[in-house]
Design brief:
48% helix; 12 strands; five-stranded antiparallel sheet; single chain; alpha+beta
Length: 562
């Protein structure tokens, strides 16, 4: 069908469009020449580099032109004509008067959907349509393509180049049309991911076996699958000037504390960094206290643990590209709790938690207590035990402190080597290395057999913690307590414990006391602290975390049938 616009009017429109395109080409050439002249100057000061980065950012945020060829050239130039960039320009309509172009990144998109639902539709199926009628009104033509032509979801209109690059480099396909100063981002993201597998860092005997992956949308779906509540809100933003990493927060509206949500949003908005590659970046940038070995942000790769935290009123932070999800606020008691505690019976869960707290003291104080008693307080030991220890240390050339430090450092090296080596031989190397080195050291007289037992017990107790970040804190503090024990004996250990408790009392996690519900003591929350009562008695959410909706339900204790 021929155009109904008169020839003079068409001529006038084409003349105006050609003048506008000429001006835009001149602006692009001037910008390119200025950038090339700056690159030739080798002696640049920091102010010039900063101004150049601002000019580059301003250059990227310019609006999309109505000239298709200008837009495609600008995309090629900005991306350095990268080999994975695919640009396809073609003509649509009966007479081929509609000039279109698509841009996408190879490897991040679904090539099948691009071929079947975009190219095939725009090049073949719309030949018999009336799009040629609106060729001189690009906005109407684009509107018809968007609403009547493309059988694909996730359509977003784009007007500037910065958003265009974000969508193209994220896996979307960009559709541009000659004569229209905007583009359409078509959802075609598809890349190879690891798939849902069992978590490797937090395993359980009873409970779900699925874990988070490196894909953000898969992780949000795993949480949505468990919490089918419309009040589960998801907010996504891009952080990182260079990486533009998608960071999402999930929380239950009406259950999570509104002040905590606002504070988290404020801290995320204040982040100004060029790259976010893992959730550890976010953790260090939003935590309350920097100079502390204790973690104030909880991380996990278990969807059930994140869902349970959200139901308590906490907030989950998901970062694209990592399977570890952050949870805030995080109190110290949360690091001693495991997902399996709520899948076992209450008495079994309580016993396991008591063992964890006992392992906490053993992992932290066993080497330092041995150094203090064997060096300063031998009178505290029974005579047979003291004689046995003295006979074992008869040929050892080092004092107890040096002996303990050597064994602890050697074991930390073996543990780190076992983690870094290939999985097939990592565990065997660490076990064989510990046995061989320990036995050889005892036979050679460098260390005593008692020290090998103490170091082994300490290492086993440090593996009991469900959260590896808390175990790392105890591994660091263990060396400090050993130094205090070698200097002041038991008085040094007591002094270290007092300082540690005072430090823990001063910590906050998004404004909440780190030792709650123990300090301050909250009687209501003691039902799920060191002991865990049955589920029918846990009908209140933690008081400090959730201040809006604290009721979980109304369930009475089960009774046998009469």
């Amino acid at each position: 069908m021929k155009s109904r616009v008169p020839i003079p009017l068409r001529k006038l429109i084409e003349d105006k469009q050609s003048v506008k395109n000429k001006n835009q080409h001149e602006d692009l050439n001037q910008s390119g020449n200025s950038n090339s002249s700056k690159s030739k100057n080798q002696a640049q000061n920091p102010e010039q580099a900063q101004n150049r980065s601002k000019d580059s950012k301003k250059h990227q945020t310019k609006l999309i032109s109505s000239d298709l060829q200008f837009n495609l050239d600008h995309i090629k130039k900005t991306l350095g004509n990268s080999s994975d960039l695919v640009i396809r320009d073609f003509q649509a309509g009966k007479n081929g008067q509609i000039k279109l172009g698509i841009v996408y990144t190879d490897g991040l998109t679904d090539s099948t959907s691009i071929q079947d639902f975009i190219l095939d539709t725009l090049m073949v199926e719309i030949r018999n349509s009336d799009l040629d009628v609106a060729v001189l009104n690009p906005s109407d033509c684009f509107k018809m393509i968007k609403s009547h032509t493309l059988p694909i979801g996730g359509i977003v209109e784009i007007t500037d180049f910065q958003k265009l690059f974000n969508h193209v480099l994220s896996g979307d396909t960009m559709l541009l049309m000659d004569g229209s100063p905007k583009g359409i981002a078509l959802g075609s993201r598809d890349w190879v991911d690891r798939g849902v597998q069992e978590p490797s860092s937090q395993t359980v005997v009873r409970g779900p076996k699925d874990g988070f992956t490196e894909t953000l949308r898969t992780n949000t779906a795993l949480i949505r699958r468990r919490i089918k509540d419309p009040n589960l809100w998801l907010e996504t933003k891009q952080i990182g000037e260079r990486t533009q990493t998608d960071v999402a927060i999930m929380y239950l509206k009406g259950v999570a504390n509104d002040k905590t949500v606002s504070e988290l949003q404020s801290r995320l908005n204040r982040i100004n960094i060029d790259a976010i590659l893992e959730s550890g970046y976010i953790e260090e940038l939003i935590q309350d206290e920097v100079y502390t070995p204790f973690p104030t942000v909880y991380n996990t790769e278990r969807p059930d643990a994140v869902a349970a935290a959200i139901l308590e009123g906490r907030i989950a932070i998901l970062v694209d590209g990592t399977p570890f999800v952050l949870i805030v606020p995080a109190l110290m008691v949360h690091f001693f709790q495991s997902s399996e505690d709520y899948y076992q019976r209450a008495d079994i869960a309580t016993l396991i938690r008591v063992l964890r707290y006992l392992s906490f003291f053993l992992a932290l104080l066993t080497p330092s207590l041995y150094v203090a008693v064997s060096t300063f307080h031998q009178e505290m030991l029974p005579t047979p035990l003291l004689i046995s220890l003295a006979s074992q240390r008869e040929g050892v050339p080092f004092p107890a402190f040096v002996e303990a430090m050597i064994m602890e450092v050697v074991f930390e090296i073996l543990r780190e080597a076992g983690v870094r080596m290939p999985r097939a031989i990592g565990s065997s190397i660490s076990i064989v290395g510990a046995l061989v080195i320990g036995q050889a050291a005892v036979e050679a007289g460098f260390v005593s057999a008692t020290m090998v037992i103490i170091v082994s017990l300490t290492a086993i107790c440090s593996f009991v913690f469900p959260a590896n970040s808390m175990a790392m804190a105890f591994r660091m503090l263990r060396f400090l307590f050993m130094i205090l024990a070698a200097t002041f004996g038991l008085y040094g250990i007591i002094l270290g414990l007092i300082v540690m408790v005072l430090h823990l009392n001063s910590l906050r996690s998004f404004g909440l006391p780190y030792l709650a519900p123990n300090a301050p003591f909250i009687l209501q929350d003691q039902k799920d602290n060191i002991i865990r009562l049955p589920h029918w008695s846990l009908l209140k959410r933690p008081r400090l975390i959730s201040k809006n909706d604290t009721d979980r339900g109304d369930v009475s204790s089960p009774k046998p049938p009469r």
